[in-house]
Amino acid sequence: MLTRKNYSLAGLCLATVGLHLLTVLADAPFYLTQLTMAAYYGLVIIGLGVLMGYAGQISIGHAGFFAIGGYVSAALTTRNLAPFEASWPVRLLDGLGLLVPGQDVYGAHLLTVSPWAACGCAVTAAALIALIIGVPVLKLKGHYLAMATLGFGTIIYRILLASPYFGEADGISETPGFTLLPALGSWGPLVISGDVEHRVANFYLAWGVLIVGAWLLLNLIGSRVGRALRSLHSSEEAAEASGVDTARFKLQVFILSAVYAAVAGALLTHFNGGIGPSEASVMKSVRYVALVAVGGMTNLWGALIMGVGLTFLSLRGVFGAFDDAVFGLILIFVMLFAPDGILSLRLKPLLRRMFLGGPS
Amino acid sequence: MSLDLFFQYLFAGITYGAIYAVVAIGFNIIYNATGIINFAQGEFVMLGGMISISLLPFMPLWCAIAAATALTMLIGAAIEMLFIRWLQSPSVLRMIIITIGISILLRESALHIWGESIRSLPYFYGNEITTFSLGSVHISPQVVWVIAASGVMMGGLSLFFKSTPIGREMRACAANRTAALLCGVNARNMVTLSFMLSAGLGALAGCVMSPITYTQYDSGTSLAIKGFTVAILGGLGNSMAAVAAGILLGIIEAFSVSVVPLAFQDAISIAILLIILFVKPHGLFGSSEAARLKDF
Q: Which of residues 110 through 169 in chain B touch A, CB cutoff 8 A?
């Protein structure tokens, strides 16, 4: 069926190909790397957008979920399990075929968890933590909710900074690539890694994940659940009175957005080949909130476009040393003048009002 | 743990607790006047410390502190007038995001003005190693300054709210804005005043604590989280309970160092915040019935 949603999604697919062609025409293939990263951040932002805009719950701790995804996956695929080979959890994993043997640079025996299993663990961990945290946190409202999620993010940040297993202030580096598909015939293997030969494939992979993620969320919003969520946003009491199980819906959306963040975190970590504690910092969480706010809380496409666009500019270093300041300013001005997002601004009446002084 | 060590920890706890209490009272003043939690409260503390350090070469210490407090009060007033005054019944979500944006802006401005270096005011009396003994416990004179200044601020504030006309008008606005308006109180000016008051309070605390805790462009954030924890612990809006809660949190933190590594200290106070939020969101001393009547 050709609906507006499908047209938009097809547009996004075309835009992806268009972006690739643009970088080819501009002879700037290195842009693809930042575009890939921006797409993964975009995945976090659309997940948070549904939580903030549709379920009406603010979360200033989403960098925490992103970091859980990234760190768990990185730690499992990097940390050597060989010394624990005899213990039962490791033997169990080995029996399930989830471990990969390897050799370090000195030829010593290495045993790590395979990326598929590690990613699965990472996303499951994030979902479980979201479930445990979500039950009490989502009972809170307003300032209390904001502060509780901020507190959650800070705790994750502190734990990462303080535990040697997660590399303390250095984070985890030398995370191996994530082989999604082995080599098939003349096709090379599909690997998530930052190597130059995988650049184009990774670009399409990241945007493919983003498009599938957006498609799933758009379906969710258009469904019965989406209507329930929107009613929740306007008035929780009214929604409850109409028979919406508000607590359950809020929790489900919270977990869903945590899963989006964790998937993005895990994939981006394999792409970058490492992760540092700054990914879990409060400023990152605030930045995600800012990007959702700029795009418009109840506008998934706005959040996606502004999120990917601004993240790309930021990754290219366009804002220089004023990176955080720019996001702070954006946050203030969008909330002051366009609380429904930049794309909601109607420029013509605004300009007319400014220059001709007509009625507002 | 020996008795001496116990008292040493206790004094450290009370010192930090007094600072947290002052930050929490700053939160409460604005919350009472507007219903907003000002997420930029910690930045006022940082600004007070930073401005006084910059002014110190040009004037005596007490002048620098007074000037820094006055300047921060002006900044507080400017923020209220620029970003908050003209909004018509904004949603809580919008206000949270705006004040977070303000805090980022203040922090980044401080980064570009003062750089990343860690600074501090000199000790008001003596130096880093001056101590006097109370029994077998050694106390830095600056600790006395912190506790005394916090005490004077709290006492002065409660006197201000109880017995001056402006203080009474502010309390009237906090209790019932519409009724206060009908009685001829200019509620908007009271909001500006509350921002000035809490900025000044934060700045003064920032100056007094600077010799002990040092000041850096991003030292406001963790203080704001601690201050908010204390404000919640005591029950939002209740300043006297905040003092008790502040000292309680300070002491818990000080003693936690003897049990868990220092790196986890912040995580502990935040975990306390989360537990309080989940179990008793109206605070240790607040009443649950009053909390239910509030909108947020």
A: 112
Average pLDDT, chain A: 82
Reduce the DSSP state of residue B133 to 3 states and report it: strand
Q: Distance between CA atoms of A99 and A136, rounded to whole angstroms?
A: 36
- Burial profile B258-268: b = 16 or more Cβ within 10 angstroms, e = fewer: eeeeeebbbbb
In 3D space, the residue among A78, A115, A51 whose CA is nearest the CA of residue A261 turns out to be A51
Do the Cβ atoms of B112 and A283 come within 8 Å? no
Cα nearest neighbour of A292 on chain B: B97
Number of H helices, E strands in chain B: 12, 2
Q: Which of B51, B50, B38, B54 is nearest to B103 (CA)?
A: B38
- Count the Cβ atoms, other than its own, within 10 Å of residue A91: 13
State the number of CA atoms in the 13 A half-sphere of B121 facing the CB. Answer: 32
Beta strands in B56-178 (DSSP E): 132-134, 137-139
| Predicted structure pTM score | 0.85
Closest approach of A201 to chain B, Cα-based (Å): 37
**What is residue B168's DSSP assignment?**
H
Lookup result for tokens 């946190």: A137
Sorted by where each begins, the domain ranges of chain A are 4-84+113-356
Q: How far is A338 from chain B (nearest CA, A)?
A: 11
The percentage of residues in chain B with a pLDDT greater than 70, rounded to a whole number, is: 96
Radius of gyration of chain B (CA): 19
User: Is A209:A43 a contact under the CB 8 Å cutoff?
Assistant: yes
Amino acid A263: pLDDT: 93
Q: Do B108 and A162 touch (CB under 8 A)?
A: no
C-alpha distances (whole Å) from B78 to each of A24, A74, B108 are 49, 46, 17
Q: In degrees rounded to 5, what are phi and psi of residue B37?
A: -90, 120
In degrees rounded to 5, what are phi and psi of residue A104? -85, 180
**Pairwise CB contact (< 8 Å): A144 & B97:** no
- In SS3 terms, B131-169 reads as CEEECCEEECHHHHHHHHHHHHHHHHHHHHHHHCHHHHH
- Both tokens of B44, joined, read 């006022």
> Which CATH code fits A4-84+113-356?
1.10.3470
Find which of A91-100, A291-300, B16-25, B171-180 is predicted with most confidence, using mean pLDDT. Answer: B16-25
CATH number of B3-293: 1.10.3470
Q: Which amino acid would we find at residue A243?
A: G
**Residues of A in Cβ contact (< 8 Å) with B102:** 328, 332
Closest residue by Cα to residue A211 from A4, A1, A7, A13 = A13
